[in-house]
Amino acid sequence: MIIERVASLEEYNLDLLIDDSISEGYKFINRLVDEYTSGNNKFDKTGESLYVAKIGGEVVGIGGLNIDPYLNLPDVGRVRHLYVLRKNRGVGLGKELLNTIIAEAKGNFRTIRLSSTDDPAAQQLYIACGFSKVEGIYKASHILEISKSW
């Protein structure tokens, strides 16, 4: 498996991710493509990044890091659109993608937030990567406090 930082999303075929996610009832991969194509979210602000995971040239996972759009704080990041094809889950791919995102965040953000589904495997992944489950916080189900590595 290879994790690549995305310079241009148009270079990647995300059809499998889109189809798989839609079949699970998720629309966020479609939204990622739409927002990227329209220019609303290119993951190109300071500290932001987007990654794909590939096996044999096939994109099997994706995940990004944005400045949290729900807060007006430049040092709070947000994990965005983390998804792994169902056929490739359970082998550590999601954890590697998320750890790549966390490593990138350490130089730019003091906190990373995310909002997750109730999927037990996703919940376990976030906890295993150091996030704490939170309640009552707007647009956040998990938070990771990190320190800037200047």
Automatic annotation (TrEMBL):
Domain N-acetyltransferase as annotated: residue spans: 1-150
Coiled-coil ranges per UniProt: none
Superkingdom, taxonomy of origin: Bacteria
InterPro entries per record: Acyl_CoA_acyltransferase (IPR016181), Bact_Acetyltransf (IPR050832), GNAT_dom (IPR000182)
UniProt keyword annotations, A-Z: Acyltransferase, Transferase
The UniProt record lists the keyword Transferase: yes
GO molecular function, one term: acyltransferase activity, transferring groups other than amino-acyl groups
Name of a matching Pfam family: Acetyltransf_1
Protein name: GNAT family N-acetyltransferase
Organism field: Gracilibacillus oryzae
